[in-house]
Amino acid sequence: MASLRLWIVAVAVGCFAAGMVVGSVISERSGAVESEPLFDLAYAEQLGVDYRLDAEQARSLRIVLQAERAEEKAIRLAIAWTELPEPLQRKLLAARAKTGKRIRALLNPEQRLAFDRDSLPIGARPNDAGHEAGRK
After folding, report:
1. pLDDT in the model for residue 81
2. Are 16 and 45 a contacting pair, CB within 8 Å?
3. Residues 6+ apart with CB under 8 A from 79
4. pLDDT value, residue 34
5. 10-69 pLDDT, tens per residue?
6. Which of 21, 43, 76, 121 lies 20 to 30 Å from 131 when distance is taken between CA atoms?
């Protein structure tokens, strides 16, 4: 029984160490340009998978999303989110629209079509169950 526990601990430590090494290598190879954490990393990775972005497109996408994060942060620092007046709401929407345009600019035409389709509101996408109901 003691050898089984030792084996489990050894495997767990090995897996942890391997994860640390892989994470370190990936961060070095990606040429991380962010000065603060990219909270939308999962979104960036999902876009990379969904639209089969190459390495340069993925790097550019991280830069675009980081710029949006910085703009949003500046806007949020100006006032509490719950008290956001309409002019600042418009600024935030404009920043998001600008990010959408920047993302589209780094995609190829096929990726752009898929991104546009996936950017439609829920219920307005051609394959959404609510799409037909939304037209009535």
Report:
1. 54
2. no
3. 85, 88
4. 45
5. 666 566 656 665 665 565 555 544 455 555 788 889 999 999 999 999 999 999 998 888
6. 43
**Residue 60 has what pLDDT?**
92
Say how far apart CA 127 and CA 131 lie, in whole Å: 7
Is the pLDDT at 96 greater than 80? The verdict is yes
Please give the Cα distance from 52 to 48 (Å, whole number).
5
Please tell me whether residues 74 and 24 are part of one structural domain.
Answer: no
User: Is the same domain home to 83 and 116?
Assistant: yes
Task: Tell me if 114 sits within 8 A of 48, measured CB to CB.
Answer: no
- Say how far apart CA 99 and CA 96 lie, in whole Å: 5
Domain of residue 9, residue span: 1-30
- The verdict on residue 81 lying in a domain is yes
If asked whether residues 13 and 53 sit together in one domain, one would say: no
Asked if residue 92 lies in contact with residue 74, where contact means CB atoms within 8 angstroms, the answer is no
